[in-house]
Amino acid sequence: MIHAAKTHMVTTSKAAVLGALAMAGTFGPMTDAHAQKAREWVKVCSKVSDNDICNVQFNILTNTGQLITGVNLLQSKGKTNRRIFQVAVPSGRYIPEGIKVQIDKGKVNTVPYSICLPNRCLAEIQLSEGLVKALKGGGEITLTSTNYRAQKNPVKVTLSGFTKAFDGPPLKRDEVAERNKKLEEELKRKAKETADKLKAAQDAAKQGN
After folding, report:
1. Mean pLDDT value of segment 179-195
2. Which residues of 104-141 are buried (b: 16+ CB within 10 A; e: fewer)?
3. More confident residue, 13 or 106
4. pTM of this prediction?
């Protein structure tokens, strides 16, 4: 079960610590026209100032590399001790609705937004042991945000591999670098394919005149 937590402002230092791993990436518009690329659950740990931070995360990307939904389970130990369940979605959301979270066919809970930036909105609650247990025992989690046109945007995230990522060791630095390299190469390939198709369409249009 997800227990709602009162949203509160964090200090600049805490925001920097907890956002160091979770707030990267550029969000584009959420649209069915973009094919989605899902990355598996992974754990990334890092030293930030006087804190040890681990982030168990799952990101869904468009073919252009834009992150349309991100799930982060952040745990900070050291000077700042916090455990956060965070969902990141594109901006242009209807804030009062929050993000609806449902594990399998269970109860629908609301995660309130904590902050909206020009290119993304973040919703978060305290990460409880009950939530971790529910995620470990689940098959998928449905995250539904509502845009400014009152349209609901449900996104399903598999929980396959979550337990292994949460309980297992974090990725090594070279593994993170290799994953980023492969992702960059794939995005470049997709960009070239798009550019080639556009050029072919333009050439065809010119020949038709």
Report:
1. 69
2. eeeeebebbbbeeeeebbbbbbebeeebbebbeebeeb
3. 106
4. 0.72
Q: What CA–CA distances, in Å, run from 97 to 4, 47, 113, 151, 153?
A: 14, 35, 9, 11, 12
Strand intervals (E) in 90-167? 99-103, 109-111, 113-117, 120-126, 140-146, 152-158
Closest CA to 39 of 171, 189, 145, 192: 171
Q: Which of 70, 55, 43 is nearest to 17 (CA)?
A: 55
pLDDT for residue 64 is more than 60: yes
The overall average pLDDT reported for the chain is 79
Rounded distance between C-alpha atoms, residue 83 and residue 94, angstroms: 26
177/205 Cα distance (integer angstroms): 42
Judge whether 157 and 141 are in contact, CB under 8 Å: yes
Provide the pLDDT for residue 187: 66
Instruction: Spell 157-171 as b/e; 16+ CB within 10 A means b.
Output: bebeebeebbeeebb
**Number of H helices and number of E strands within the chain?**
4, 11
Query: How many CA atoms does the CB half-sphere of 54 hold within 13 Å?
Result: 16
Residue-wise pLDDT tens digits, 161-182? 999 999 999 887 666 666 666 6
Q: What is the distance between the alpha carbons of residues 170 and 110, in angstroms, rounded to a whole number?
A: 29
